Amino acid sequence: MLEQKVNRNSHQREVILEELRKVKLHPTATTLYKLVCKRLPKISLGTIYRNLDLLSKRGVIQKLEVNGSTARYDGNTDRHYHICCTNCGRIDDIYHLSKELINIDSTKIEGYVVEGCHMNFYGICSDCRENQ
Amino acid sequence: MLEQKVNRNSHQREVILEELRKVKLHPTATTLYKLVCKRLPKISLGTIYRNLDLLSKRGVIQKLEVNGSTARYDGNTDRHYHICCTNCGRIDDIYHLSKELINIDSTKIEGYVVEGCHMNFYGICSDCRENQ
DNA sequence: GTCCCTGCAAACTCTTTGCATAAAA
DNA sequence: TTTTATGCAAAGAGTTTGCAGGGAC
Predict the structure, then answer these.
(1) Does B117 contact A117 at a Cβ distance shorter than 8 Å?
(2) N or C: which end of chain B has fewer CB within 10 A?
(3) Which residues of chain B have pLDDT under 50?
(4) Which positions of chain D lie under 7 Å from any protein Cβ?
(5) How many CB atoms lie under 10 A from the CB of residue B53?
């Protein structure tokens, strides 16, 4: 059995979590790094990655895999979904879906014990439509 | 307006497509590369990537982003979904879902013109449960 | 004092790209 | 002959990791 390490409270980790919770736009590790740098100029990208990994494994934050290439992070762990603009890449939250969709985690799939479902929508946001 | 280049039929592209359609397990570019190498020993990974990109942009194949890190490819473009085993990483097809889920693409989301939805399930496959 | 966490830099993985040559039309 | 596609190798982006020193408890 794997022994779980006891985590210490580091100032860096607190600041990373605070800054992630402040922003709405689901930043990448690098974007978050720049934000955290304003408060902790000496922090390194490695620390950002290590803490984002630790926090998402603990379920304190959510790691999103919306756009293939780059991981994005969400400080909000309430059950919700995301929609990504295929033009500008912005990612918005979706809270209101029909009941059938909200209950999607209980879907039965032959041969599997289902643990969950990731669902991401794609489309064009209103800003991009206006700027055509 | 962007001018669309006319694609020539290359032998490499044909073989890549044939091999992708043969396998059921949604290979990565590297896995497919190894398969294609058996028939075309001198092919390069770059050619694999270039053709997978071209074919998925044309809609001939599907690029999957199921597991974050590495892209996987599916030669089957029928409307279907995927479930990924969180233990061993295998990816299976899902063809039968309830009507509400099948119609998910027509979901309305405020502020957006929805183009589509990517939906991936996660769970433990039967092989992994048996081997516990 | 112990052991986890950090900063730094190097390494790693996956993917893309530049270039000269080969192949398709 | 013209233009696209290939093989090769190098470069790029994003992420992970080894290590010595610093910090939490």
Answers:
(1) no
(2) N
(3) 1-2
(4) 3-10, 13-18, 23-25
(5) 13
